[in-house]
User: Fold this.
Amino acid sequence: MMEVKKTKVLVVDDHELVREGIVRLLKLFDNIEVIGEAADGLEAVSKVREDFPDLVLLDLNMPRMNGIDAIRKIKEISPEIKVIILTIHDDEEYVYKVTKAGAEGFIQKDITSEELNEAINKVLAGETVFPQSIIADDTEVNEENVDYRDILSNREYEVLGLLAKGMSNRRISEELYISEKTVKNHVSNILRKLDVNDRTQAVIKSLKYGLVRLK
Assistant:
């Protein structure tokens, strides 16, 4: 019988009891091998260099180096290493920041072991995992069958993609060779058409509906 290749996982959390709990959950699954633990982002980056895991489960708020900075460092070492943020937070602003930094997943610590395993499998399969509050079906949108690809113009798509990269209006104007005033008008149109209040919400919604990718 052919042996199933196990996914090598590094678990990173500054709370020892939480970290041990996550490790115990992961050991319930035959397809996962926990190859190491780390108590902060700096230690995580060091262990990634040594062990090259397939996936890193990473806390967001940690001493010495936080999760967002750790994501960037890990991706510098190897863009192929998948990163899932495992946190108590569910703020869209955090989702945007960690996704922009390069993480493929953002899940909360109150999920079940089965949900955690499912999230890991999805990320390994090339999908992006967001909190349920972000990816939950929008009943109103479904009822109206809104297709945002038909609503936005080609130029608005370009501007939205650059917004997702964190560019300012000035930087976008330089990138697209248009005036800042024109950029501002495009941004206003994007917010109105997506029915959101600010740039962060626009990016989150565009990620939710697959309008842009940050990588």
Notes: Strands lie at 7-12, 32-38, 55-58, 82-87, 105-108. Confidence is low (pLDDT under 50) at residues 135-145. The radius of gyration is 19 Å.
